[in-house]
Here is the input.
Amino acid sequence: MAFEQAWLDYSRKLSCEGAGKIASVSIAIPEDRQDDLIGNSVTELQRAFLGLFGRELSVHTGTKACDGICLAFREGMQAEAYHVYEDGGKITIEAADSSGILYGVFALLCHMRTGGSLSGLELAKAPVMPMRMLNHWDNMDGSIERGYSGESFFFEDDEILVNDRTVTYARLAASVGINAAVINNVNVKDAATWLITERYADKVRELADVFGGYGIRLYLSLNYAAPMEVGRLNSADPLSEEVRAWWKKQMAYIFQKVPNLGGFLIKADSEGRPGPFTYGRTHADGANMLAEAALPYGAKIIWRCFVYNCQQDWRDEKTDRARSGYDNFIGLDGQFLDNVILQIKNGPMDFQVREPVHPLFGRLTKTNQMLEVQIAQEYTGQQRHVCYLIPMFREILAFHTYVAKEHDTVEDIVSGRTFAQKNCGMAAVANTGNDENWTGHDMAAANWYGFGRLAFEPELTAEEIAKEWIRLTFGMDEEVEETMLHILMTSWKAYENYNAPLGIGWMVNPNFHYGPSVDGYEYSRWGTYHRADHLGIGVDRSGEGTGYALLYREPNASVYNDKERCPDELILFFHHLPYTWKLKSGKTVIQHIYDTHFEGVEMVDEMVERFKKLQDKLPQKAYQRMLERFLHQKEHAREWRDQINSYFYRKTGIADEKGRKIYG
Ligand code: GCU
Here is the structure.
């Protein structure tokens, strides 16, 4: 198995009804419209047929020789959409543009490789999210912030890498519909500040061109203080004429060098990064200054809403980090230029295993919005624990904000339906690195695969996506499929069970965000507290507390505000409760903590037992690599269980009803 090909490994032979006769690809597309994407579409088909069937496809231009697979443009279709169909043994892939053709090719190959037949074939899809983006947190020295699968394959020793792996990356990303990627960390420091200058422009262009050949727009994260660091100005004030002129000049330069650059991602006034606050200006002032400079080039400014005070005093019970994104941005709704998109994390804190949906969704009504999720498993097991996140993302997308009578879900908002927007979509903090299998844990690749598929077709279920990924990666074997599917589909719940309970989050080692440390964040400056004492636990975010619950529209606000109605899984996020509080499940808080922690470990034990039965069915290298991680997860889940259970037993003195072993 060629692990670096991940789900595009064509080395496993395939028998597919109707494929036997296909021996050619015909390009029925006017020559002046045949770009790199068309070339890459053809190459992909050739590569696949050679690998899967051992057959060389011949390539023809024009309609005449069209008796195998025919690529054609059809006007009137939606951008990036495809239509693939069989007629008299011939397969036609049509689209309005070359991205659609490429997506049609990947859809055809996926169909064939997951058990579909070609006779009567009919596949037609248009992407639901306009932007389907990966955010890489790669640093130019080759390290990756929150990277769990090796080093960067974009950067090494302050240089940009463009090589075979770049092409494979682009193929993998495009095959699941990714159409934009930010290659550098949002915390832009050191060499990365210079990515927009002559030092790197030629290499950025080379990379942007490789991406472009797969329908992926390259984006860069910007250092807001670049006018000072690069331009030697003494300010980065967004209202200063000098600063504005500097950005205009710098944008003119970089877009002349890299005309297909998509735009920029900016983390400003957050966790020590510079921003407009220094000058008493707003985020709208900052974003609009950049948007104006980027507008002539059709580029976008993606501005992150992850802004909070990270110097909080834990004694201060009034300040609530959960409110900060909302409080910082809600007053700016309607002030951003149209090429600005606000990128909003799925929850108000920071990618915990369970959080409520960010309250800006459904409150912003005049601003372009993008949902940011994290497939890098920073707080969800760091790609050593398996944690398939697509079920979580689906829940977030399905959340009703009540912003409108219909089309009011997060999915509606970020796909542009609610407010008729085009500059919107979904971004994921990427989980890739230079490990042979890209994602460290082989099963973590399901999150990369799944994110793209979900952003393209959010109507797919998490199971459907998982099945596809399993078949493409490990072939068509019922036992493999059933086992892997079971593991993936139970993994988020298992992880949640043995982690911090009932939506409270955090309880991790502050430095690495890995492993249990119940009070790890309790007296820190990060605004992330559980406030447990011997009587109760949780943060009062109701109207009587920080008021956070009331930021939502009705009926969400009333539901969250009321301890009797708030869903169990978020109850400690919204309320401080006694350990003896009866949950809707009928259990007390303390018994829930004990039960879920024992159950979480049992779920992992079951996963591992099932996984071991696949020993003879998986490539040995992959089996061993996964087994090692599963065994670690098994141990580590116990550590979580025992530390959390002991902590609460010691605090409360309340014994487990079922008399299981808890360390006193
Ligand atoms: C988290 C993460 C940081 C990251 C930040 C962000 O706090 O731990 O590494 O920089 O999120 O999203 O900007």
The chain has a mean pLDDT of 97. The longest helix spans residues 620-652. The first strand starts at residue 24 and ends at 28. The radius of gyration is 25 Å.
